[in-house]
Here is the input.
Amino acid sequence: MKSNKFLSITCAALVLSGSTMSCNSLKKLTREEKGVIIGIGSGGAAGAAIGSKSKNPAVYAIVGSAIGGVAGAVIGKYMDKQAKQLEEDLKSVAEVERIEEGIKVTMNSGLLFGFDSYTLNDKNRESLSKLASTLNEYADTEILIAGHTDSIGDESYNERLSDRRADAVASFLSSQGIRKSRMVVRGYGESSPQFSNDTKSGQDKNRRVELAIVANDNLKNDAKKGKLDNTTALK
Here is the structure.
């Protein structure tokens, strides 16, 4: 895990088709196709790390849903504990990163699915079951499940495959007790590469399923009202 990898960016506004909306809903953020996020506080380098949501939708969702301030710091401690548990759950299956007030989990599709398949491998179901158990323990969160592919093959086919792989992960988590209302499931196909598709190594890394885990409105409201103190946040 890349421990304590915080991107110190404050979400100022999300411009949605000409109107302005507050940045506190994962579902609104991920469903809007024409939004622009404005990050302030860390200059160009950190802004480049976010990019647009099409380039890095998981980070976009995490940073865009942050509330900042004292309440945001308390939520961050709540996420610290959860991230440590997720790292133990997933071990070599995934990379777990703490970003702002959320958690990004990146799973290599090759470890979850066979070639050109969206059926989960039996050998990794145990890890996903542990993931679900931790997500159930920290129930006041919303989860973006984003499927990605490399650029080999037909673009529309890759988009369908990424949809189906994201759906497969979401369906499994649902079977383990994760409420469907907590999950936003999206396939991005080949549109969001994080590495060059010109090499086999880059292609392998671009075939992935990412989870963005953020506070839901109940957790944010409790943090703002001081109901989520450090003792509660640290369990």
In short: Confidence is low (pLDDT under 50) at residues 1-25, 31-53, 230-235.
